[in-house]
Here is the input.
Amino acid sequence: MHKIAEEPAVVGTKQTLRALEKKNVKTLYIARDAQKQITLRVLEFAEAQSVPVIYVDTMDELAKACNVEVETATAAIIKFQEVK
Here is the structure.
């Protein structure tokens, strides 16, 4: 499993949606056991922007990959942003 924590990333559906709205997502991760009504909007944004989606079996597995202790439905690797 890819260690998302080693890349610039956001964790959680709210943060992921914000990054997608800014068109700043390189790769999206979705837990297969997450509730569909939670992940649907995120997935729609990703598909509209042709963002690659990687499915992870469980929210716990995704949390571990992100190096967080709370289960998470979605996470995303974000594009590099220059500091102005």
